[in-house]
Amino acid sequence: MNPRPLTVVLIVPTGVGALIGGYAGDALPVVRAIAQISDTLITHPNVLNGAQLYWPIPNAVYVEVYALDKFAAGCWGLQPVHQNRIGLILDADIEPDLQLRHLQAVDAARATLGLNITDCVLTDRPLQVELRISQSGASWGTIGNPDSLLRAAEKLIKQARVEAIAVVARFPDDEGSLALENYRRGKGVDPLAGAEAVISHLVVRTFKIPCAHAPALSPLPLDPHLSPRSAAEEIGYTFLPCVLAGLSKAPQLVAPESQQHNQLSITADQVDAVVIPATACGGSAILSLSGRSSVQIIAVGDNKTQMQATPEKLGIKALQVNSYLEAIGVLVAKRAGISPASLGADISSLRCLSD
Amino acid sequence: MTTHFISAEVDLHDTAEELHSAIEIELQKHGEPLRWAVTDVDVDRQKAVVEGYVLVEASPAIA
């Protein structure tokens, strides 16, 4: 009999100042390590996107967070693909030279990586992105013309039959701001992340199609004190290559009862474990998956965030570990069928249930 | 169509699934929930502090 495949979900919420994964794709080493001991590792763009940098991981599944929430709730399944036909949306607010930089990044991905990016649409109005920080310290934002974004997506889907959409919106250049200065030092919250999430959520929610976003920004002056965690975003003109690479093999999103759903589809009942920063357990996906008795939630203590939603406060049963290294040990034990508790010095007495 | 940021407090429930439902119901009073998270819990008052975005469809113009 074949052993049950180990399916792991790795979440590092975006825009909450996660010490690991809150910057420029700096949780990628964690993904690479966990992928080694998983059969399938489901994660999201914030974790896998490092602007110019990315890493092809055959068993990692790139799922936008709105879709991940729907997957966790049992509403959508993930249907693997060989390659998606990708369309590009460019915000009309992007200056002509910056547009050209992004189109050249697309051409590079087509010629050098063999990606199937077929069509581009310029939005009919500027998207008008605005950035905010919430009371909890998370970044968020709004777009002034969401209908324009959705019209562009609809055109790509109906006219060009694309299967995944990359969006590039012009984000405000907040050069000189404290938030940006902190981000470049590897501290604080990514000020762009919350607004980026709104953009991709809107497209995924409306069209049920894989989508990811890259911000268009003017190049920043050279900073000799740039943090290694933020450096991936300062080695090129666009953040687009990682998005295109991720979308190329992103799974299609299918309802479990639909005809497209088949034995290759991944559904929430296949999930064995979720790895999450311990203070960020209050998201939709974790609350959904915590209701499944077969799912082991592994809460990582040293990946601190601006959130204060711990498993204890929420009444969620979770295994608390200090680090991702320890989380990987738990997953190895789980795969081997070994109780993590039996690897410690103290083993508690057997509990006797009373009437 | 517009997106709105919402901050709310929701009573803690016995299970995480019930809390999930209660949050969605609370946010739906303001629009269609697009993204949300519990950011903290007031343990003494048994309240979950929630931040999220909702989507509000534009009302048809009144002639």
Structural class of chain A: alpha/beta
Largest interface, counted by CB within 8 Å of the partner chain's CB: A-B, 39 and 30 residues
Shape of chain B: elongated
Q: Rounded to an integer, what's the Rg of chain B over CA atoms?
A: 14 Å
List segments of chain A where confidence is low: pLDDT < 50 over at least 5 consecutive residues: none
Number of strands of chain B: 3
Helix and strand sequence of chain A: EHEHEHEEHEEEHEHHEHEEHEHEH
Give the termini separation of chain B: 19 Å
The strand line-up of the biggest sheet of chain B is 1-3-2
Description:
The complex is a heterodimer of chains A (355) and B (63). Chain A contains eleven helices and 14 strands. With 355 residues, chain A is an alpha/beta fold. The relative contact order of chain A is 0.19. The model of chain A has no long low-confidence stretch (mean pLDDT 95). A three-stranded antiparallel beta sheet of chain B has the order 1-3-2. Chain B is 21% helix and 49% strand. The two termini of chain B are 19 Å apart. With 63 residues, chain B is an alpha+beta fold. The chains are: A alpha/beta (355), B alpha+beta (63). Chain A binds chain B through residues 13, 16, 65-66, 69, 73, 132, 134-136, 138, 140, 142-143, 146-147, 150, 197-198, 201-202, 205, 280-284, 286-288, 290-291, 307-309, 313-316, and chain B through 1-5, 7, 12, 14-17, 19-20, 23, 32, 34-41, 43, 48-51, 53, 55.
